Amino acid sequence: MTDAPVKNLVTASGPEPAPEPASSSRAPRRKARTRPAKEPKRKITWDRIKAQRVLLLMAVPLLMYQILFKYVPVYGWAIAFQDYKPGRGNIWNQEWVGFENFVDLFTGVNGERFRRVVVNTLGQSVLTLVVGTLGAIVLALLLNEVKNAPFKRIMQNITYMPHFLSWVIVASLASVALSLPSSGGFINQGLMNLGIVQEPILFLTEPNHFWGIVAGTSLWKELGWNTILYLAAITAIDPSLYEAAEVDGAGRYRKMWNITLPGIRPTIVVLLIINSGWILSTNFELPYFLGNGLISETAETIDVFVLRYGYQLGNYSLAVVAGIFKTVVAIILVGSANMAAKRLNQETLV
Amino acid sequence: MSSTLAPKSLERSAASPRRRRHKWTTERIIFTTLNTSFLVLLGALMLYPLLNTLAISLNDGMDAVRGGIGIWPRVFSLKNYEVVLNMDSIYQAFIMSVLKTVVVVATNLLFTSMLAYALSRKEFIFRRPITLIFVLTLYFDAGLIPNYLLIKDLGMLNSFQAYWVPTIISAFNLIILRTYMKSIPEEITESARIDGAGEFRTWWQIIMPLCKPVLAVVGLFVAVGSWNAWLDTLLYNSGDPALTTLQYELQKLLASSMNAGANSGNSAANAASVGAGGQLTTPIALRSAITMVAAVPILLVYPFLQKHFVSGLMIGSVKG
Amino acid sequence: MSAGLVACTSDSDPDDGPSKPVVIPEGDLADKSGTLTPSNPTTLTTWITTASQAPAADNKITKLLKDQLGVTLEYEIVTPDNVDQKIGVMLAGGQYPDLVGTTDLKMRLLEGGALLRLDDMLATGDYPNLATHVEDDIKKMSYSGEEVDPGLYIFPNYNRFYGEVTGGTYYGPAFWIQKRVLEDAGWPDLNNMTLERYFQLIADYKEKNPETEGAPTVGFEVLASTGREWGMTNPPALLAGSPNNGGVIVDDSNNAQIYADKDIAKDFYKVLNEQYAAGLVDRESFTLTFDQYVAKLATGAVLGMHDQGWDFQTATDSLRSAGKDQYTYVPLMPVYDGAEPWYADRPVMNTNQGFGISVSSKQPEKAMKFLDLMLSEPWQKVLSWGIEGEDYQVGDDGMFTRTDEQRANARDLTWRASNRLEALLDVLPKHNGQFTDGNAYSPDDQPAEFFATLTDYDRNVMEQYGKKTWLEFMNPQPENPKYYPAWNITLSDDANQVNQQLTDANVQNLPKIIAGDPADFEASWNAYVDTIKKIDVKVYEDAINAGIQERLANW
């Protein structure tokens, strides 16, 4: 990433796309806002604080509130440095062990396995995120092209319905769908009817298929739900842009590519940055319910591992250690994503 | 969130008007047909799980165990719903769930949007540090026990406050709202200020109406989250039957239906008397009925919010 | 019920202000000591871990408690799925209800200091039913560790037996086989069963009947779904004639050893591997969720499997309600040459479950009295059978019977909410076995009830084998060893971790061994044994052995 001169032309956090160098300005520019190229560094002075007292009044009490409810309880992380036994009473009444729990997790008897579950978590998560984001954008664009309002509404409502089924039910449906035709496996049935395969595939016995199965199942469940935000973003695009484009003879795909997508780009970017931090916090149920001994090498994720070796064994410290690990990774990832977005002159989180 | 501006696209399309006008209708017909077919297919795929769950919920429990039910019940029965709806606590739990959801949505939208407004203001000097503090909370969880002790020390155990006070700000929604607000042209706030409006009035009377679509979405997110939550009931309010919620009660019922089939090893309860007949529920059938009862009320929220998904709001405001 | 006896015991509750005259109702259900009376109402807060549901507001037993004892129970019910989280915060908060009912988490409550030591109260002699209940097993029931004072803290809820153990259904582990297979084979002799004969029966039948109601017939299903891996891992010990001790076999000198990597295991998985190759074992076995597993059994297509009876009860119920008795199962006990089958064991008491009284309780005597009264025979009958004339009848011979309608009611979740105190009963100490009048503790253990619900098909199956109950198909149950069972020994964190590693090694390797090419069997088996060698098995075995020695010394 080079520090392109472009950077000086737009605000670092502004939602505008990077402007093209050349400009034959038949485009409607009446909404163009020319913002200062870069926010000037502002000194915090009493005068400024006083001038902004109302904004401060809006923000500071809520900030205090957030610190009380989210940051104060973080003292609970002390458990990570203890041999925590609930029976010993409160959290300060425990035996301190330093970084022993961390060392144990990364290099102990299960160290190799922990590294593998981190890889599985990343694999499942990145695939789910990519497939899910692309799917949601495509569906949003397609829905946006529907001119029949009732049909559009109905489709929106139908596609978001699977979100309301629990993962247990979805996992169970997926498991049936992927089974042998005699057990109701319609995917195998379809593949065989189409002549793609001769013999049914036992999908859930193949380690190589599992990440795809997780991504596919999540797509099925969350596609419509993930589309909602993009649809809301599309509503805010100025219709006159489309009108002007039509006057210019732009077709459907050109408008999608050149108006709709850039219009929702800030949303896409912000969601991607936020999600980048959740990459280690995957869905727990799918690997738990669909995983089995034959495919555990690709199925087991951090959360499943923590359940087996943490909660189920009463080893709370391990669970907290894993939580801290995920937080640290999340902050690194989000920070990097945010910085990358800033370099590319995209919307940023902070 | 969304730019109202896309200069380069227009420039490009203006530069190369390749598409020929008279092909427009044909293309449109083809596209619409393809698009509609695709969406209908997709819709069928998405509708299937819910219809399947509905069919199982309307099926005799003993028969449902055999599996293989599609979108139509094989042996029709209302027994599963009878069990769920006859549950003593369910109506009160339903009312509590609605009340809780309404209060959480209202407080959340109010406080989150107010903060988002402040953080969307470029000149606000503490914008970045405050945003950072909120963003970080997306990525860590302090753990159940410290959270519980906090609620306890604040005297909010077994109280309605435990449902909404800890959740008046959602960092995720804050970012969504702030991003959207940042895309609102500054001229609007500037002209408001010239008219003598203070920050509160600008937020409430100028910005909020412009944010309707995104407020609808955030409202939906919060409503669904609050409706589906049961951990707060378990941890903070399970000691007071008046504060129980629908999801929590359904969750317990589900456990007891599982139990009815499976505890025989120990207690030998009820196991021998099956041959006597009588329609019985089974975990799989009851789980489906429970899912429907829990999901349908919240599924109905989205259609009501859709009317806010109207484009061009902002334009009208700028022009007017 | 009319108020009868009037006693003037003003010392019953000094906290309740000016004492009213105590009115004790007539009848068996009243508290003759006058501690719990309608004239002096008591509210007990009750925390229960159970999957059973809370009573409805109109519950008739709730009303009976109020009328007879003046007791109102305020329930806080937490299901087993949620209890880990709830117990953690409850201990952190340090406030507990009067009565604390636990399942399997006694240790955490105990070590967290939530429970009251009950020995001194018991010694007062005011609680005769409880005293009798714990008399013979006090050592087994008491805590003997070092975290808190040793002593009695809870009253175990199940399997402290009075009189004879009755009941005709078998809920334990077995190799199950469909009745139609036996019928087709001309009711073969089931004694001295071996794996070879078991699979031969299945193979012969499958050969003749490749389809069952349109679906392919499945020879043998391996139960391996998450949390139920024991369906796949437990058979070697049973085949070797050892009772269910979990992952270990305990020899005559009380020395425990894992068997997963031993020859008895290898022999079993070799047979499964061969049968898998022969197409007898379901190819889908290892990918089925538990729901799918039950569904498959409920279609009637599965000829046999290893499982515990309670686990697939839903499938059995479904088949019976559809009138398809020929698809239900008979338990078989294959063993290796020279081994005596020990599949069925005597029901064991789980001393980690039951009611205790919390340290926060302001009325421990009343709470204790309540538990004591609930354990009396009259109340036990009310709790387990219901109200005489409404929920059951008493015959001329004094035996309790039920009509079909009463049986159906007892299966109905809605009815039970209004007519049973299921959640409470689940955790209360029980009069398992028989009452002094000869009736069984619960309808399901009552022999007459068992026979009344047998279908003609099942009667015929029993006649063919000259048996009267399903239990008689199993081995006679010898006295359990003193330490038994090893699977509920409380382990240290390290030992638990090793145990989990062993389970994981099984789950990851056994399916590959079973489903692999028979030519690769030796190689896959060796890889599995190598995996186990890398695990510090000794930590686990030592912990089990220490537990056994501790029990031998203290029980």
Question: Can you offer a commentary on this structure?
Answer:
The complex is a heterotrimer of chains A (350), B (320) and C (555). Chain A is an all-alpha fold. Chain A contains 14 helices and 2 strands. Chain A has a two-stranded antiparallel ribbon. Mean pLDDT of chain A is 83; it is low at 1-38. Chain B is mainly α and 320 residues long. Helices cover 68% and strands 0% of the residues of chain B. In chain B, helix 5 (90-120) packs across helix 14 (246-262). By secondary structure, chain C is of the alpha+beta class. Chain C has 2 domains: 34-159 and 355-427, 3-Layer(aba) Sandwich (D-Maltodextrin-Binding Protein, domain 2), CATH 3.40.190; 173-343 and 456-488, 3-Layer(aba) Sandwich (D-Maltodextrin-Binding Protein, domain 2). Chain C has helices spanning 60-69, 83-93, 106-111, 119-123, 128-135, 138-141, 179-184, 195-208, 230-233, 235-239, 263-277, 290-299, 313-321, 364-374, 377-384, 404-410, 413-419, 422-427, 447-452, 456-465, 493-515, 521-534, 537-554; strands at 3-7, 22-25, 42-49, 71-78, 99-102, 154-156, 173-178, 211-212, 215-216, 218-221, 248-250, 256-258, 302-308, 329-332, 354-357, 393-394, 400-401. In chain C, the strands form 6 sheets. Chain C has a 5-stranded mixed β-sheet. In chain C, strands 10-13-7-14 form a 4-stranded mixed β-sheet, sandwiched between helices. In chain C, strands 1-2 form a two-stranded antiparallel ribbon. Chains in contact: A-B, A-C, B-C. Chains A and C meet through helix 6 and helix 11 of A and helix 2, helix 3, strand 9, helix 12 and helix 21 of C. Chain B: Keywords: Cell membrane, Membrane, Transmembrane, Transmembrane helix, Transport. Chain B: It is a multi-pass membrane protein. Chain B: Belongs to the binding-protein-dependent transport system permease family.
Low-confidence segments of chain B = 1-22, 261-279, 315-320
| Radius of gyration of chain B, whole Å | 26 Å
Strand content of chain B: under 5%
How many strands, what sense, and barrel or not for the largest sheet of chain C? 5 strands, mixed
CATH architecture of the largest domain in chain B: Orthogonal Bundle
Per DSSP, the total helix count of chain B is 18
Count of structural domains of chain C: 2
Text of the CATH class of the largest domain in chain B = Mainly Alpha
Helical residue percent band of chain C? 25-40%
Distance between the termini of chain B: 22 Å
CATH evolutionary superfamily of the largest domain in chain B: MetI-like
Structural class of chain B: mainly alpha
Largest interface: A-B, 125 and 112 residues
**Spatial extent as radius of gyration of chain C:** 26 Å
Strand order within the widest sheet of chain C? Answer: 4-3-5-15-6
Family (chain A): Belongs to the binding-protein-dependent transport system permease family.
Transmembrane segments (chain A): 51-68, 122-143, 164-187, 223-242, 263-280, 316-335
Subcellular location (chain A): Cell membrane
Domain ABC transmembrane type-1 (chain A): 118-337
